[in-house]
């Protein structure tokens, strides 16, 4: 339902109590609440003698009733008036408590209301960012780009809204001090080389046709394995560990079925104690290797069926 105001809407009612009022027809020279529209919300005033009430209610055509859902002010200290017997006037009004007014050159909005970005307001908590009027139609996401550092700013203090003339999402840093560059949806390219200032989470989306240079694989130094050790692929894809006692190993968070994934384990003193490998690990010839009791072994584990089967390979025994 919509909030609707209409001119010269005034009826009478003889309803008593604090519930919805039944409307008895338009007063002379006025129109009925049907001008508001069935099911719509409006501001109303009920007045008769010393009793008066200003509020918000819904008009229902069947039964010609007006609900009294929100009381803005009344002769009953701001609560619903228990209407006494007699005829009361009911009319549409624009309550002062909800009026938007211009004070000099400032628009004052009651109730700390938010003006939507599409209407030229903030639509969010960051008024300074919202006042940045891009005034263009891009059809793609926009982020604040710092030309001095050639980096995109992080989004921890950014404002997200809608382009005034575009209809697509916009992200503008609260303190840009730089140029704004657009992502070209047609070519799927940014127009300059980028240096990221923070980690980027692709959330399992495909990174297509990259050429890698000066790259690293995330590593995790576990230290002593203890009696149980989990190798979590969401943590790293390279692990260093020292077997300090009999231990049960677990592999977790492999990639989805059909995707290839794995990790490298640099294990010190792997033959000094008993290792219980996951039952899903297959070894060459069906037997786990004999590892070095005092030294370093390099092992590789890969899977392509979401970890149902891991293929284990010894890359180097007693590596020196």
Précis, in short:
By secondary structure, the chain is mainly beta.
Task: Describe the protein's architecture and organization.
- The protein is mainly β and about 325 residues long.
- The protein folds into three domains: about 10-95; about 115-180, no CATH class; about 220-315.
- It is about 0% helix and about 35% strand.
- It has one helix and 23 strands.
- The strands form six sheets. Strands 1, 2, 3, 4, 5, 6 and 7 form a seven-stranded antiparallel β-sheet that branches.
- A hairpin with a 4-residue loop joins strand 22 (about 295-305) and strand 23.
- The longest helix has 4 residues, at about 125-130.
How are the SSEs placed, and which strands pair?
Layout: E1 10-13, E2 21-22, E3 41-48, E4 51-60, E5 65-66, E6 70-74, E7 88-92, E8 101-103, E9 106-108, H1 127-130, E10 142-146, E11 151-152, E12 159-162, E13 169-172, E14 180-182, E15 219-224, E16 228-232, E17 238-242, E18 247-252, E19 257-268, E20 275-276, E21 281-282, E22 296-305, E23 310-316
Parallel strand pairs: 15-17, 16-18, 17-19, 18-20, 21-23
Antiparallel strand pairs: 1-7, 2-5, 3-4, 3-7, 4-5, 4-6, 8-9, 10-11, 10-14, 12-13, 19-22, 22-23
